[in-house]
Amino acid sequence: METACLDEGTLRSAYDESWGDGRRAEIVAHLQSCAACRRRMDEMADRQRWVESRLTALAPAGSNVAPLPNVAWSHLQPRLGKATPARRLPLPRWLDRHAPAFGLGLAVAFLALIFLFAPARTAFGQFLGVFRVHKFAAIRIDPAKVQRLDKLDTSGPEMFGTLEVVKEPAPAREVSLAEARGAVPFPVRTFGWLPDSVQGEDAPLTVRLGDDGEARLTVDAAQVNAALALLGEDDLHVPVALDGATVTVHMPRTVEVEARGAHRFLSLMQMESPSVKVSAPVDPNVLGVVALRVLGFSPDEANRLAAQINWANTLVLPLPTDAVVYQEVEVNGVSGLFIRERSEKGYPPAMLLWQKNDVVYALSGQYAMSDMLAVAEGLH
Amino acid sequence: MSITDALSRTGLRQSEAESFSDTFYRHYDRVYGVLYRLVGNRQEAEDLSQEVFLRLYRQVWQPGREHNVAAWLYRVATNVGFNALRARKHRHAWEAMPPDESLPSSQPEPHVAVERNVEQEQVRAALADLPARQATMLLLRYAGFRYRELAEICQVSPASVGTLLARAERAFEARYRERWGTGEAA
């Protein structure tokens, strides 16, 4: 039976003998019978050898090979003593598995922030306005649809232009609660009630102060439109007015208060809302639809959903449906979002997000929603 | 076979059995290799390798937590390396790149070493011009990484690696020839 010609990726993988899904016999048979594919394979092989001869020349040789690891370790070890090991929030385990989706999610959140600037705010010169998070909203994204983003050469905010870190935050450092309270302009809250499985109220808590940081995205409309075309969304275009516009995101200092038990912990991250400045007028709805279409929503779904979101003050979090479950909840009298990893084993990592009095809170731990809400209610 | 070795065969996952030093010993050679390919200087590659492991310790490392440390390491190593490369580019060093002082003195002909250095800098310049994912794919593939590892590091599905690699090779060749002509050996 005659089979369709092989696509470029299949040919390239076959050249490296990386056969996917037991297709070896089928691919070999096709190559034997199809002169056109054999010719394409030969061209690809020529290019591969040309590239290989250049890239392999970069390998360290002679006296430039890696030093013995024990020598390198002896240099690193003293520096580790001065560094504080990471204490990550539990959620990134699903982020690791869904990084492309979430990377894009961040980009969408980033782009969503662009939506918020009404031309009426232009009175203050260069920037059209400053967005601050007032509310969180989750949208379900289909991981299978997001997989098509693999076609892109970049994902995350860089899909939209050039990203520059204006100020890289220094690593977080352990401080006293008093020092943390003196370092940020909002009242730092701590635990008033904790589940038995973490340290009690009288036990010492760990407090970390995170540095502020700033990043700037210079939008490249041609790049965004090329990426949209590659995704098959040929009818979508970002507004010309956005080309060359800068989007500057400032992440303020953070304070993390952590209570740790033998097996579980609770962490409360608190910060002023990140601020975003944009240097060009844009239509929020147009960009909202673009962002949702990139995430795999159909034109109808994207239009309907974009119309339901209050882009003026809402940070949109795209969540992969196979990885997490979420629920809108009331926390301390305001609307919040509870997100939990989809898992039947043990205590799945969970996060509770809310904003009150211009301070954003993220409570992380491996607890049920009722416990997390009780901890949040008990903060003082 | 040690427990760590057995676990490492299951993929790139850090296991509960693995300490930070285990991770360091297991990955140091490869991290250094990636960085050397990008900066072409032993001392700088050593310094940047230390920086990458320090970042791992400060930002990610959590004993007893399963996490794709290797993918993180090589992703950060390539970012750090390309940043160093681009910083050098901004200093207009391509045109006046000095020979690597650490080249072995046993090189038969000094001018051969200099020519090789220039060629390598041309390859690095063409790589640095590519989009990040393409550059990372090429660099790591020709440093011996397998398709499954590339997929995890570049955060794409394994089925996409062939396509991305083919596209990256085409883009690299085009960029190289555009910058440096035919690219045939002098």
Q: Could you please describe the fold and organization of this structure?
A:
By secondary structure, chain A is of the alpha+beta class. In chain A, about 35% of the residues lie in helices and about 25% in strands. Chain A is built from twelve helices and 15 strands. Chain A has helices at about 10-15, 25-35, 35-55, 70-80, 90-95, 100-115, 145, 175-185, 220-230, 285-295, 300-310, 370-375; strands spanning about 130, 135-140, 160-165, 175, 205-210, 215-220, 245-250, 255-260, 265-270, 275-280, 315-320, 325-330, 335-340, 350-355, 360-365. In chain A, the strands form three sheets. In chain A, strands 4-5-8-9-15-14-13-12 form an eight-stranded antiparallel β-sheet. In chain A, α10 (about 285-295) packs across α11. Chain A is globular. With about 190 residues, chain B is mainly alpha-helical. Chain B has one domain (about 5-180). Helices cover about 65% and strands about 0% of the residues of chain B. Chain B has helices at about 5-10, 20-40, 40-60, 70-90, 110-130, 130-140, 145-155, 160-180. In chain B, α2 packs across α3 and α5 crosses α8. Chain B is globular and about 50 Å long. At the A-B interface, α1, α3, α4, α5 and α6 of A face α2, α3, α5, α6 and α8 of B.
